[in-house]
């Protein structure tokens, strides 16, 4: 097949296999082999390719690229170190890989050239998220922090910076253990960022201010988080096998949020969670090898996708199809069809970079204009000083000459 169905789920198995399902069917239609991927180690590259992180038996790292119609990788990208989470820009032209050192590595595709590597965290990177318009990369780490970066600054060759403080937008500090997943709402700079962790909490953050808004506490570790399309409710993947939900209507930051466990639960930890069908259904993948499809309105499991012969599941992504914009690494919608053109919502990354470069250019032009104005003002001040000195000197000369004439008379 040349591209995924509008609704295609990819499950990741530690044993080296990736399985593709169409949720309308209960059987797998394709399998990809050869990649021993850590958690969050698969990403969709546009509509035609798949990327998977790979750690060999010697602990050497690589990223494998697949076509949808081939079960084996067609290209191997060398990486500076073993990497786990992957995330790609919506046009599939750039790929971010999170290293065990805490570095983020950015690659251009399909060649796999390394664009930039930089230290983002003090411990291994555990998860990624790119916001709906593709302008921000958000990373989570085993150090318990979340970092937010403007994508164009990371990818633009004309963007020069020597320290991480020159490019980071916010660093969110608050979790006491590893960050397992991140999601972000719509609304641009007014969006809310949600992070979940092995410390049994989900934390809500203001993107605009980079401040903590609220914390939800669970009876177990949380491996994934997603919101519905209207951002009125959140759904969390519990390590106890339960789905937890909570309301976000009104101003949830001003009161305590109490998550509710759904009645039916998996037999093992839920390692990934996603939404499909324009938010009508929820997908949950358990470590034991099951993928359940839920009806969100009734909270009933309507279909079970099982592939237990492959072993435990370590991750799940939902491929972007032609008639809906859905899922990335943690299952969050990449955008919503609210009467806006998808081309505008999923702007090609080169355009985002061009906008960033243009913005930097405008800032630099403004800075040069201010510097020129300051220089001109300085010159005028010096000229004024010289003129005043000449006038004062002339007045002094006139006064002295007039005094001699009076004396002669």
TrEMBL record:
One of its GO terms (biological process) is rRNA processing. This is WD40 protein. Keywords: WD repeat. GO terms for cellular component: nuclear pre-replicative complex; rixosome complex. The keyword RNA-binding does not apply. WD repeats lie at residues 118-149, 263-304.
